[in-house]
Specification:
- The structure holds two protein chains of two kinds.
- Helix content of chain A is 10%, strand content 48%.
- Chain A is mainly β.
- Chain A has a single domain, classed as OB fold (Dihydrolipoamide Acetyltransferase, E2P) (Beta Barrel).
- In chain B, the strands form six sheets. Chain B has a six-stranded mixed β-sheet with strand order 10-14-15-13-12-11. A six-stranded mixed β-sheet of chain B has the order 21-25-26-24-23-22. Chain B has a five-stranded mixed β-sheet with strand order 2-4-5-7-6.
- Chain B is 44% helix and 25% strand.
- The chains are: A mainly beta, B alpha+beta.
- At the A-B interface, strand 4 and strand 5 of A face helix 12, strand 17 and strand 18 of B.
């Protein structure tokens, strides 16, 4: 029997990532962000999610990727975490993909640094690699360098 | 499995509640050992714990409850008198049961705490037999059973089977449930009744030796108890989380309402306006209603205090009577939680340091027993709590000496403090008056923590004392934290909310004034506010954006935190708004400048400034922190002094005079051409009346000066008259310790003083004007 899992895919720079669909509460277009002075650089601000105040974390900064070009609006993926809802800021949101467990492999050797810690493995899709994000670790702030 | 958890959970909740009452009851019993109702209540609590813990297999708990129950049984039967030792042992039992319940709550097991010593003590106390064996006389027990039985004749008679449901469980069922008798014996006894036996069911069982008197009596009591409980059917238990959710939703509704009302006010469609007004009303009522569900009487916190006072006064060898007034005063649950510790601390303090030893009290001509009064009441949208003792009071000089030796204030500052201010130094960090460290105080938690905790929820605490007469602490706290009025300000593009509770006043310095108004003292920016130095903090630089403000007008929000005031420079000041406070997520724990966030009418998120956090941080980052500190302490020192507040004016040719601000009603400007003449006097029309004018220069003989086009006039008013005093120029308002040199006295002049480096006449307005027949 072939096990399939569903992932919500999204793009960060040139990479395609996936988070388990059941971790995702919703996806939203760019939202008004209220910056929090003196907070960690990964915390980009607070958004109003229908009356609930949700902290937005920039996944690019979390993964040590260069910041988006000015004018490029991030998308929000609202995920459930142990500390409540959090919004992950990503470049673009892709399809929900069904993956075949047999195509799973450990993280590619080409990844290094933080990305390596936060990626649990890859699924080899037909046209690209889907990097699986370790959501629980990704939503934690990195220890101060 | 979850079902069992639920039942255990209910058992825990119920037991905790009963135990709270248990402590209170025991203390009441100590005061009035003959109160059978109270003994019954205590007995039931322990009995229920015993029964239920046995059911769940918590054996240690059950056996402890069992020995306690035996002891209580003898107390109830009047065979033993309540002694202090017995009361202490029973209180300790309550504590041990609480600890075991806590362990069950955490781990699901009753833990390994060794309570055999306690159990032995209870056993020994129970075996003590002051009545030398007579106590076991059966006559006593039989009559006790008969007594209770007659009080509930219906429920014990099988003839009333059908009504049993309405009055709680039947006695027989209860006994079987508790395992005191077999079901068979009960049916047999019931059968005997059916055959015409006139005795009650309980009596039959006892007479037949099937059940002990004790078991029957306790079952009867439980039965009565059950019947009473149905009275409480009008209230239900609600999870606090659910109430919090409701409160959040109502908060949302309030915000949406604000938004809608704002939009509709620009609109002229009547139906929409009408609907929005109704929404407005309903929302307000709903908000009030939901707030009420979270209100709890302050008695819920206080009910722990009699125990605290009892234990503490025993260990200090003092006698303290605790009087509580206004237990029913209601407060939001979150606030109740927040004030629990500070209040307990204040009460401990009052017993430990406030109230004297009995012999000292007698020597001072007071009664042996000290009195500690807790009082709560609502006033002006706030709750006031007072903790008043009739003890020795606080010696202001000792506080001064201590504060100087702890480096909180300098000797010089200390001598300048009024007694009242000096006493308030006990709230300073690093202060402790207790000459000797007792087991109670000297734990490193001082009054500064009390004040910080109270201020954290937007409250204030003040102390007043009279040596030898006692001390009173006054705590003021807001009713609720969830929805608070706040002032909205901007820094850069971002808006921030400042809780109104921290706000003192708003200042605006115009461009040219701004450049010189902010001065540096030891590198710390300060502003002279009515003659006092106000430390200034720039919000932008606190937030990490340096800004050049040269040439701009400056907005200063004057705030108070930790007993000190400071000015916060902001870019713009907006309106006040009612905001719904929401906590910040765990990722923002480090952001100490913010106490929360809120959603504004336009849907954007705004951060709420933590005034205390800003004050602390500003001090930490300040280069000369310690100097800033001392300047600020200086500030506090001068804050409440009973100094004179004076209006400084210029008279004639560069001569200065000062008028007590209390004598000044208003400051006005009149154009010179508005002056008219009536009865040979200069007058102006002022507020629909005629205001006579007097030229201060003339009154003081300062010589004639050509009047300018616009006259500065000080309006003085007392019972008899209003007078406008024309002065050369209004200079400033200062607060000064006026040191009068008698030299220059004359008519209407108290004397001269050096104010702001200039010789100034301090005027006696009453005399000055009283001598003037021209004034009406």
């Amino acid at each position: 029997m072939i096990m399939t899992t569903q992932f919500c895919s999204f793009r960060l720079a040139h990479l395609t990532f996936g988070v388990e669909v059941d971790r995702v509460q919703e996806v939203m277009r760019s939202q008004a962000l209220t910056p929090v002075p003196l907070a960690h650089e990964v915390v980009r601000g607070l958004i109003n999610l229908r009356g609930q105040i949700v902290t937005a974390l920039d996944l690019r900064r979390r993964l040590d990727l260069p910041d988006r070009e000015a004018g490029e609006e991030p998308m929000n993926i609202v995920v459930r975490s142990s500390g409540g809802e959090l919004s992950l800021l990503v470049d673009a949101i892709g399809d929900v993909v069904d993956v075949d467990e047999t195509t799973f492999e450990g993280p590619p050797e080409t990844l290094d640094g933080v990305a390596r810690e936060l990626i649990t493995g890859t699924y080899k899709l037909d046209d690209r690699l889907l990097l699986v994000l370790d959501t629980d670790r990704a939503v934690q702030l990195p220890a101060p360098a | 499995m979850s079902e069992i958890d639920e039942i255990v959970g209910e058992f825990l909740v119920e037991s905790y509640e009963n135990l709270d009452a248990y402590d209170e009851d025991l203390l009441a019993l100590e005061r009035d050992p003959a109160d059978r109702e109270v003994i019954g209540s205590i007995f039931r609590t322990i009995h229920t714990v015993k029964g239920t813990s046995g059911f769940f297999g918590f054996n240690a708990l059950e056996s402890l409850a069992h020995v306690a129950e035996n002891l209580l049984g003898r107390l109830r039967a009047g065979e033993l008198d309540v002694t202090e030792e017995i009361a202490s042992a029973l209180l300790a039992t309550g504590d041990a049961i609480r600890r075991m319940l806590g362990e069950i709550e955490r781990t699901g097991e009753e833990g390994t705490e060794d309570v055999t010593a306690l159990a032995d003590q209870l056993g020994r106390l129970q075996a003590d037999d002051p009545a030398s064996g007579e106590a076991e006389a059966p006559a006593v027990d039989a009559s006790a059973v008969a007594d209770v039985d007659t009080s509930t004749p219906d429920d014990t008679s099988p003839a009333d089977d059908d009504t049993g449901d309405d009055h709680g469980p039947r006695l027989g069922d209860l006994l079987v449930e508790r395992g005191d008798v077999d079901a068979e014996d009960v049916s047999f006894a019931a059968l005997e009744q059916d055959f015409g036996d006139p005795r009650r069911l309980g009596e039959i069982l006892v007479d037949d030796g099937k059940a002990s008197e004790e078991a029957v009596a306790s079952a009867v009591e439980a039965q009565v108890d059950n019947g009473q409980r149905s009275v409480a059917d009008t209230s239900i238990r609600v999870d606090v989380g659910l109430l919090d959710d409701l409160m959040n939703l109502v908060g949302e509704l309030v915000l949406t309402r604000n938004q809608l009302v704002q939009l509709v006010s620009d609109d002229t469609e009547h139906e929409l306006t009408g609907a929005s007004q109704r929404l407005n009303l309903v929302t307000t009522e709903l908000q009030e209603g939901v707030m009420k569900t979270r209100m709890q009487p302050i008695g819920n916190v206080w009910n722990k205090l009699p125990r605290v006072v009892r234990d503490l006064s025993l260990s200090c060898g003092k006698q303290v009577r605790l009087v509580m007034e206004g237990q029913e005063t209601e407060l939001d649950k979150t606030i109740i939680e927040a004030i629990k510790d500070p209040l307990t601390h204040l009460v401990r303090n009052a017993v430990d340091h406030g109230i004297e030893l009995p012999e000292d009290r007698v020597a001072a001509g007071k009664s042996e027993e000290g009195q500690l009064v807790l009082r709560a009441f609502h006033e002006g949208g706030q709750v006031n709590i007072e903790i008043v003792d009739d003890g020795g009071g606080v010696d202001a000089d000792r506080v001064r000496a201590k504060a100087v030796s702890s480096g909180i204030v300098t000797q010089d500052q200390a001598t300048r403090l009024s007694d009242r201010e000096a006493v308030n130094l006990i709230f300073s960090a690093g202060f402790s008056t207790s000459a000797e460290v007792t087991s109670v105080s000297g734990r490193g938690v001082g009054m500064d923590v009390v004040r910080t905790n109270i201020e954290r929820i937007g409250g204030t605490v003040d102390v007043q004392t009279e040596l030898g007469q006692g001390t009173s602490f006054k705590v003021k706290i807001p009713l609720t934290l969830a929805i608070v009025p706040a002032l909205m300000v901007s820094s850069g593009d971002d808006r921030f909310a400042i809780p109104q509770l921290s706000l003192i006043e708003l200042l605006r310095l115009d461009g040219d004034q701004a450049a010189s108004a902010i001065e540096l003292v030891h590198g710390v920016p300060v502003y002279r506010l009515r003659g006092r130095l106000l430390p200034i903090v720039d919000l932008s630089s606190q937030l990490g954006h340096e800004r050049d403000r040269s040439g701009e007008a400056i907005n200063i929000v004057v705030l108070h935190a930790d007993g000190q005031s400071f000015g916060l420079i902001v870019d713009l000041i907006h309106d006040t708004e009612e905001i719904v406070v929401k906590p910040l997520g765990s990722h923002l724990k480090e952001a100490t400048l913010f106490s929360g966030a809120t959603i504004l009418g336009d849907g954007r998120v705004a951060l709420i400034l933590d005034v205390l956090g800003i004050a602390q941080r500003a001090r930490v980052v300040s280069e000369s922190a310690d100097r800033a500190m001392s300047t600020e302490v200086d500030e506090v020192a001068t804050e409440h002094t009973e100094r004179r507040t004076l209006l400084l004016v210029e008279v004639g040719d560069d001569r200065r005079a000062a008028i007590a601000l209390a004598d000044v009603q208003r400051l006005e400007e009149f154009r010179a051409d508005a002056i008219e003449h009536a009865g040979g006097q200069e007058v102006v029309q002022y507020r629909d009346a005629i205001l006579p004018l007097r030229r201060l220069g003339d009154l003081l003989g300062a010589g004639f000066v050509e009047p300018p086009e616009v006259l500065d006039v000080v309006v003085h008013r007392d019972e008899e008259r209003s007078v406008g005093l024309v002065v050369g120029r209004i200079l400033d308002i200062v607060e000064e310790d006026v040191d009068l040199d008698g030299g220059a006295t004359g008519h209407g002049v108290f004397g001269s003083a050096v104010i702001q480096g200039r010789v100034t006449d301090v005027l006696d307005i009453q005399v000055l004007l009283g001598n003037d027949p021209g004034v009406m």
